[in-house]
Amino acid sequence: MSCRLTISTMIILLLVFVAAQLSFAPYSNNVHPIKQRIPEGFPQPVYDYKNNPLTKEGFELGKRLFYDGRLSKDGYTACASCHQQFAAFADFEHVFSHGVNNRFTLRNAPPLFNLAWHKDFHLDGAINHIETQPLAPLTGLNEMASGIDSAIEKIKQDPLYKKMFKKAFGSEQINSQRILYALAQFTGSIVSADSKYDMVKKGKAAFNEWEQMGYRIFTERCATCHTEPLFTDLQYHNIGLAVDSFLNDFGRMTITGEKKDSLKFKTPSLRNVSRTAPYMHDGRYWGLSTALDHWQTRDVSDNSADSLIINSTPPDKMEVKYLVSFLHTLLDTVLLKDPRFADPLPGNLIHSPLQ
Amino acid sequence: MKMKSSFTLRLAVCVLLILMEHGYAYAQKNSGTIALQIEHIAGNSRLELDSLYQNNLGESFSVRKFRYYISNMQLEDAVSKKSYWVKDQYFLVDEANPASKMITLPIPAGSYRSVSFLLGVDSIKNVSGAQTGALDPLNDMFWTWRSGYVMAKLEGRSPVSGLPHRMFEYHIGGFNGTYNVLQRIQLNFGETLMIAAGKKATVNINADINAWFSAVHPLSIAQHPACTSEGALAKQYAENYSHMFSIESIFVP
């Protein structure tokens, strides 16, 4: 009797032990899992949080880091300094962004949304993973100019961070991997799929006449590279932008070392494009119609551009107007105001003196 | 009754723990240990940081920093010719950290013909996001402006260098495409290496810095004081340093 009881207790214990192991992995204790948002009609994301379980605690930590200027050398240049929510996380109306010591970046800051669908980052594809992406601006001398070690040291001084790391990852340990995991939980969660265009697709709104005309022209002439629903094919193209002799930015070729990649840049998404002026990798064009005029005004003797640009007739003036009308329907005002992505401590940790 | 059930519970936990311990010990019984003890040398001399040496091209130099990754180690079984693969273990060997030059691993007891390893971090780990431990970007072996690990790093000074402080810097990386620098290095034990259960065999390996300058391609410091990005030159350095290792002696208890 007693023996049978012992054996059955052992079996129960074993089951409890196994169940406990299963429930602890991959989530640590007492976290609140978040389901990754995959909007209707979107493909499967590249980044699916398999090795970095998405939780409320991890997301909140990532958000605080994103808005914290102390990560930079001067103590007040945060990720959010050049990626502002009201500009769809681009740098509002800046050709180049301002890093520490009055230094400028060499490319126009991209907006940040739908990043979980990107397999590489930067307009030349220099970075191959969403998790390691923040190391570039963090250490870039014309951006945040920090060392990874000094950023960690500063974070460790803040008792609130210790609590947040413990909540998110189960212990107070602060290391580069946890910082990068948390940042990926925040940046990867920024999804843009609530524009007028999306409402039209769901049958909840209708385009006006010009928007409808623009959408038709768009699908015929632009959608090959600005593929729906992300409005980018995530590929690299040369659209005939003559190289700026000061910047000498040859784009993708810098990374692959291959001549065929000269002057190729990653197709930017057109979502929120009406909020992210100026345009092109070096911000050379102000205004959407000016950017569209590039088709007309570009140097036609330059035959290195993509055949889709070379072999097609540029849109006429009215077509440009229709297209611009359509592009405005891609503005996601829900994202721009979503409190989940807003600064948790408005103004406290960025653009204020070293704390 | 309550007393009794709590006693039963305690007994059950004890029995369970003993059983688990026993199973663990059983698994350990058939396992031995291999230790790779790496010695950095320059020609015939033991490497000391900041001391002067001469490479095979007649240039004198000193070393300030010497680090590299070892990963994907494999031990080839002398009988079955199959390899025991040490998966997901990355070692950063650093001249400045003596402990890092001794790599100790449990392996199944048996007889082995050779050891091989990747000098560097395999391509999969290069595209797998944030890592920690030996692969933490904090170790200054990760290119942050363009993703990828520096597989090997050699820095120092030489009177023939035209760079400031007469320094030279080789940061060798590139994990894919034409300029992939990953090298698999195989070292044969000569005689079969017997790893007995519960015993440790030590393999003493020399790594000769001079190979960097001349093992395959003559790469003088005067002509190439720096190589800090991937490309054809980095690949030549990798082909050179893939010859730097040799087995000096083997100690089997």
Structural commentary:
The complex is a heterodimer of chains A (355) and B (253). By secondary structure, chain A is mainly alpha-helical. Chain A is built from 14 helices and two strands, in the order H-H-H-H-H-H-H-H-H-E-H-E-H-H-H-H. Chain A has helices at residues 2-24, 56-66, 79-82, 135-139, 148-156, 159-169, 176-187, 196-201, 209-221, 253-256, 288-297, 307-310, 317-328, 333-337; strands at 236-237, 265-266. In chain A, strands 1-2 form a two-stranded antiparallel sheet. Chain B has one domain. In chain B, the strands form two sheets. In chain B, strands 3, 4, 5, 7, 8, 9, 10 and 12 form an eight-stranded mixed beta sheet that branches. In chain B, strands 1, 2, 6, 11 and 13 form a five-stranded mixed beta sheet that branches. Chain B is globular, with a radius of gyration of 22 Å. The model of chain B has no long low-confidence stretch (mean pLDDT 91). The A-B interface holds A 2, 5-6, 9-10, 13-14, 51-52, 126-132, 135-136, 138-140, 148-149, 152, 175-177, 180-181, 184, 255-257 and B 5, 8-9, 11-13, 15-16, 126-132, 136-138, 142, 144-148, 177-179, 230-231.
Q: What is the share of helical residues of chain A?
A: 25-40%
String of helices and strands of chain A: HHHHHHHHHEHEHHHH
Poorly predicted runs of chain B = none
CATH-level-2 architecture of the largest domain in chain A = Orthogonal Bundle
Task: Count the DSSP helices of chain A.
Answer: 14
Integer average pLDDT of chain B: 91
- Which class of the largest domain in chain A in CATH terms? Mainly Alpha
State the total count of DSSP E strands of chain B.
13
Radius of gyration of chain A: 24 Å
Portion of residues within helices of chain B: 10-25%
